[in-house]
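Duplicate of #3305? Posting structure anyway:
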């Protein structure tokens, strides 16, 4: 069943703001390319988790993260959480790292932040597992849900980089600063980065707030909604340029 726009926005909890800001949000679909990336996308940090990761398939990746000890997070996890979803996705969403519930269930974004992420997906007619893959910057839960350290993100990057290569998504949405740090190698404020298209290996990249941040800062949800519309516009633009895409909705 398709949700109505009103209901989708209500599910995201942004209906009143949407009404106030509808004109401005309507312009979110600005042309891509007018703002080039602020810095080049580095090929990646060192590969302390092992140089052969770039050759692994899905099974190999799953096996390797399950026993990985390339950073200290491997000592505290119940299980590594590689990712979930469609392995031929249009969309790749990248969060920070597993929380307590993800650590137990082995799937990203199954807790409170995950509920909001699911609502955000529904707001643009997407759902987990269908043209959508969800991953994290680090595969193991940081103790006490602290932010992952730069060296932990660097240690885990080869896995995410390999996932991106296998997935070949049409668009990447970075949820929060850890994902931005990991993929774009930038530590700038999200407010300065969002609203512009970036590039990773030829794949358009969009930056937005992390759902857990949105849960604490409800008014920012309208900006996340703008960012998702912007991402969708970029995706459609790529399709118009001739990429073989089947775009429904
Ligand atoms: Fe390995 Fe990543 Fe887990 Fe660190 S967080 S132990 S690099 S899988
Ligand atoms: N927050 C994240 O960044 N990732 C998850 O998987 C869950 C919460």
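Output from current build:
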């Amino acid at each position: 069943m398709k949700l109505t726009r009103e209901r989708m926005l209500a599910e995201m909890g942004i209906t009143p703001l949407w009404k106030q800001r509808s004109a401005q949000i309507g312009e979110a679909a600005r042309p891509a390319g007018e703002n080039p990336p602020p810095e080049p996308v580095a090929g990646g940090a060192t590969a302390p988790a092992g140089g052969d990761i770039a050759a692994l398939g899905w099974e190999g990746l799953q096996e390797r993260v399950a026993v990985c000890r390339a950073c200290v997070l491997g000592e505290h996890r119940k299980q590594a959480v590689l990712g979930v979803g469609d392995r031929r996705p249009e969309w790749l969403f990248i969060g920070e790292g597993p929380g307590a519930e993800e650590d137990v269930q082995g799937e990203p974004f199954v807790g409170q932040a995950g509920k909001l992420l699911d609502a955000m997906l529904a707001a643009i007619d997407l759902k987990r597992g269908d043209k959508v893959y969800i991953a994290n910057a680090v595969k193991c839960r940081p103790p006490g849900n602290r932010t992952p350290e730069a060296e932990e993100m660097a240690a885990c990057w080869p896995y995410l980089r390999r996932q991106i290569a296998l997935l070949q998504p049409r668009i990447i949405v970075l949820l929060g600063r850890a994902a931005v740090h990991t993929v774009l190698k930038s530590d700038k404020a999200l407010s300065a980065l969002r609203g512009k298209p970036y590039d990773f290996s030829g794949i358009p990249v969009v930056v937005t707030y992390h759902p857990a941040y949105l849960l604490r800062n409800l008014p920012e949800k309208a900006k996340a909604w703008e960012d998702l519309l912007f991402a969708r516009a970029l995706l459609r633009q790529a399709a118009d340029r001739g990429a073989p895409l089947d775009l429904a909705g």
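Confirmed duplicate; merging threads. Residues 89 and 131 are 4 Å apart (CA to CA). The beta strands are 83-85, 91-95, 132-136, 171-175, 198-200, 203-208.
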